Amino acid sequence: MKLTWNRFSPGVWRAETGSEPITLTGLSGVDPAPGLREGPEADFPVDVEADETSEFLVLRIPLSDEERIFGCGLRFHSIVCRNTVVHLRADHYHGNDDGRTHAPVPFFVSTGGYGFFADTPDPVSIYIGTTQRLSDKPEVEERDRATDPQWRCYNSPEFVEIAIRSKKARLVVFAGGIGKCVARFNLYCGGGFIPPKWGLKLWHRTGMSMTGRDVLALVGEYEKRKFPLGVIGLEPGWQSNSYPCSYEWSTRNFPEPEKLLDDLKQRGIRVNLWENPYISEKSELFRELKPFSADHLVWGGIVPDYTLEPVRSAIKRHHAKHHLALGVGGYKLDESDGYDCWLWPDHARFPSGTPGASYRNLCGLLFERITSELYRENGRRTCGLTRSGNAGGCSFPYVLYNDRYDFREYLAGLCSCGFAGVLWTPEVRTAANGDEFLRRIQLAALSPMLVINAWADNTVPWSFPEVEDAVRAALALRTKLTPYLYSAFARYHFEGVPPYRSLFMDYGYFLSDNRRSGKLDSTKNPYQEVVQKDITDQFLLGDSLMAAPLEPGKRSRTVLFPPGKWFDFHTGEFVSDGGAKTIEVPENAPLPLFAPDGAVVPLEENGRIEIRHFGTKPGEFVLYDDDGESFDYERGKFTRTVLKSDGSRQVETVPGAGMTPRSE
Length: 664
Ligand code: GAL
Known about the structure:
Layout (H helix, E strand, L loop, with lengths): L5 E4 L2 E6 L6 H5 L20 E4 L4 E7 L5 E3 L12 E7 L9 E2 L5 E4 L3 E6 L4 E5 L29 E7 L4 E7 L2 H11 L13 E4 L6 H13 L6 E4 L22 H10 L3 E6 L9 H5 L19 H14 L7 E4 L22 H22 L6 E3 L11 E3 L6 H10 L17 H12 L4 E4 L14 H13 L1 H14 L4 E2 L1 H5 L31 E3 L3 E3 L8 E6 L4 E3 L5 E3 L2 E6 L8 E4 L3 E6 L2 E6 L6 E6 L13 E6 L4 E5 L11
Parallel strand pairs: 6-7, 13-14, 13-19, 14-15, 15-16, 16-17, 17-18
Antiparallel strand pairs: 1-2, 2-12, 3-4, 4-11, 5-8, 6-10, 8-9, 9-12, 10-11, 20-21, 21-22, 22-27, 23-26, 24-25, 24-27, 28-29, 30-31, 31-32
Helix pairs in contact: 2-11, 6-7, 9-10
Bound molecules: beta-D-galactopyranose (GAL).
Beta-D-galactopyranose (GAL) binds next to loops.
């Protein structure tokens, strides 16, 4: 089967199989961002062989020995993908990086200079160096495992095989280094979102059954203790029915929602509402949406088909009346990822004809679309939380979370999310002790969204008095870093560069690896599989900082410094010339943060910006600003100020234009 690749923009090509394939980006309703038009041009970077079976469209790409693959959806244990398989399906995540995840994004990028995106909602499986074909036989060398120590479970030649459960798909190839391919992918999907400024403040999600009165008491306590709060998130009990949802206020718990919201607004606090997609017969929407719903129920509620325009506009109309009119700031879109034991089955029928399995990959994305469009149509920015997303949703202002609570997984999620075109928040719930609570707060305070999710345990920042001062310091650092983070989001929007990145995205796969010698262990590793060297506990935030969080209960850790000189963010002292180093972290000390030579970091305190320069190399930082609330920045109403390490600054106002990428 021959694919015809058409140039779409510099370094981006598309090919289609079948006529008018349904795509994730088409269903998201978002156009590619203008930044995609920026160069450089490139040659088509890879050989893609296409084939069709009775069930699948299959693509095959050669994989060289030193090549590493990143992406394949949001992951929580490993970032490097090699000799592994993912079956990408939206799921609540059950502990394995096998493709069942909150963001089953069918995109990956290779150190071989290309990125690949299967722009389809249909199930996609990616086999990375695991398959052999009969036609490869002449090149495959057989070995006798019993006698030959060179026997391996992976045979050369190796390939990436992508199997799409559909005959119609749009395929997209990107050229460039891994950072460039990711940026191009994000721009192709619409460019990253810029949150409203209030979205970067502290969020508190209330207990599940809290009343309006309880909320005011809680906010009063925050004020008394001087913990600045940005957002109150109301969990299920704000509705007259939840699981399934009415999306309408509980008159018992919230008799005067308008008054409550006004009161909170006066105190500078926004309100975010929890929802899931399943609609109760108690909702005004039930009758209208029943004919546009699946033939299966979830928790007794109907499952509306969000691919249909009348469904989207009915939900918008309803939410505008019951929520936006009262000043609600946004939503937490829960349960859209699904868990097999309560979700619709793959064989469920949706009125649009979308297969049940494909709708599962779409539900969260379209839930994001509806609510994002609602705010956009009202000229106000929103941001919120979601449990599933997909490609095409990069510009939707949502951050992913889940119910698991493993610290290392949460940290790995932050390292991996940039390769999946999404953002991840390691939310804080309760903790076994003050040390754990502090380490979790410190991590959340450096993440895309700082959330205390007290839905089931009523946690508050002062829950552990022994670390209260250190918690306060972590939250204060978040506030100081706000202009820095906001500028990182601007790069995400204009240039596609994720604000949270794996070290590999900026430095390549700089680890030495002995990929072919897995250690035989009859119980733990009978096939002598190789564990790839990986970095899942350090991440880059913005252009100038690297975080190496400390796990609860630990007092030291090893930090891997990429080549070059590195400095301690907190003390300014030189730490490393590159390579591994063990650092000691005293009790209650801040989260280890490092800056490379020449880094310039703006810090805000009481309306003043302090500029910190690390090391001796000259450097600069592009500080972005806008009104923080509206979409006027899309019409050029923003400022860029180039802050230089010599103390000079240069303000540029760029009317109507995107920022230009600063480097390849
Ligand atoms: C879970 C969600 C929690 C909380 C809870 C309320 O599904 O992950 O964060 O919102 O629902 O029932």
